[in-house]
Amino acid sequence: PTQPATLINKAYLLLGRLDGMAITLPDIDLFVSMYVQKEAVISSQIEGTQASLIDVLQKDRNNEKIKDTEEIVNYIKATNYAFKRLEELPLCMRLIKETHSVLLSGVRGNEKSPGEFRKSQNWIGYTGCTLNTASFVPPSPEEMEHSLSDLEKYIHEDSSISNLIKTALIHYQFETIHPFLDGNGRMGRLLIVLFLKERGLIEYPVLYLSYFFKKNRNRYYELLNNVRIKGEFEEWIKFFIEGICEISEDAISSIQKIIKLKRIDMEKIRNIPKGNISSLLLVYDYLLKHPFLETEDIRLLSDLS
User: Fold this and answer.
1) Nearest to 155 by CA among 239, 79, 87, 89
2) Could you tell me which of 57, 25, 33 has the C-alpha nearest to residue 206?
3) Where in this chain does the record put each Fido domain (predicted)?
4) How many angstroms separate the CA atoms of 190 and 192, rounded?
5) CA dist., res. 86 & res. 210, Å (int)
6) Rounded to an integer, what distance in angstroms lies between the CA atom of residue 96 and that of residue 106?
7) Binding site: which residues?
8) I need a surface site. Which of 153, 179, 213, 305 has the fewest CB within 10 A?
């Protein structure tokens, strides 16, 4: 098995490579936009939202799954809001509450105090379970206030602990505190990239662990519970950093494929005989941003009849 120090070094190398490669993309904003949309879909699906990435990309075309799509769009807005806000504020409880307010604005969970920490007891378990049959009961509202204060201090304290280990512990701690009545899972996953951004490990929101957590869902919840019940931190940290390595490699591969595909497409367009190259390039750029096109869109873009 991989030693913890070796695994951490590998994760740092991959994160650095991912961030460096992202800068080389011909249209970094487009890539980030699509990546955030993909993450929003997967993170929301973990919570039971049924919409797909196709539904989100078609959101302006009378989509039937409008409610589910709105939840995902809110996740996108919350991510963009939080990254922008990090330029003005440190990663603090105020920023987390503001982001939560954007996440739950006008969608399911809107009645559950968006942007406010809970003032009542909550619990985690199967649908319909009670406080007595719950698999886990987070701290009471009074204890929660102290726990959040400790978490905020931990986020900002300088220590000899690797920032990647800190990220794993911050995510675990947030999910254990479960400070909101709804949206804790999504906020906890978003907190991962916000901490990595604040620590200068990533520049763009292109690393998301939701796919890894979804793929290893049972193991994810089992390891979180093992930390809570048995204090087994090492296995959780190892799992978390393995996720960072796997998802970084996946994102690096995606970037390489995008660069190659765009180069091939551009060559094909330029080699079209008697083609209106400028109009074709205009349509191609639009297609990258809006994968679902109608004839009218093309006509408006290129003035073709």
Assistant:
1) 89
2) 33
3) 91-242
4) 5
5) 21
6) 18
7) 182-189, 220-221
8) 305
User: What is the rounded CA–CA span in Å between residue 74 and residue 188?
Assistant: 15
Other beta carbons within 10 angstroms of residue 23's beta carbon come to 9
- How confident is the model over 234-290, as pLDDT tens digits? 999 999 999 999 999 998 998 888 889 888 999 998 888 877 788 888 888 888 877
DSSP state of 136: B
For 176-208, the pLDDT digits (tens) are: 999 999 999 999 999 999 999 999 999 888 888
Q: Residue 34 above 50 pLDDT?
A: yes
Which active-site residues does the annotation give?
178
Task: Give binding residues for ATP as ranges.
Answer: 182-189, 220-221
Q: Kindly write down the DSSP assignment for every residue of 35-103, as one continuous string.
A: HHHHHHHHHHHHTT----HHHHHTTTS--TTHHHHHHHHHHHHHHHHHHHHTTTS-S-HHHHHHHHHHH
Domains and CATH numbers, the chain: 4-254 (1.10.3290.10)
Report long-range pairs for 2-8 (Cβ below 8 Å, ≥24 apart). 4/234, 4/237, 4/238, 4/241, 7/238, 7/241, 7/242, 7/245, 8/162, 8/164, 8/165, 8/241
For tokens 């650095």, what's the residue? 16
